[in-house]
Amino acid sequence: MSQTLVTALPLRSPGRPAGRHPGPPEADQRFAEEYLRHFYGYKPESERQKRTADSDVNADWPTGLCDEVQRMQRFFGLPPTGELTNDTLAVMRRPRCGLSDVEPFGGTIRWKKHSLSYRIAGYNLPVLTSKVHNIFRAAWKIWSNVTPMKFRKRGRKEADIVISFHTGDHEDGSPFDGTGGILAHAFLPGLGIGGDVHFDADEDWSYNSTGFNLFAVAVHEFGHALGLSHSSDPGAIMYPAYNVAPSYEIQLSFKDVKDIQRLYGISSNFASLSSKNPPPRTPDKCDPDLSFDAVTELQQEVLFFKDRFMWRKHPQFDETRITLISSLWPESVPPNLDAAYQNVEKNVNLFFKGHQYWVLRQLRLEEGLPRNISDFGFPSGIKYVDAALHFRNERYTVFFTGHECWRYNEQQMMMEGSATLIEQQWPGIPTPIDAAVFSEGLVHFFKGNIHYRFDPSSKHVVSTSRTNELLECKKNDDNEILSEGR
Ligand SMILES: [Zn+2]
Ligand SMILES: [Zn+2]
Question: What are the helix and strand counts (H, E) for the chain?
Answer without folding.
Answer: 11, 26
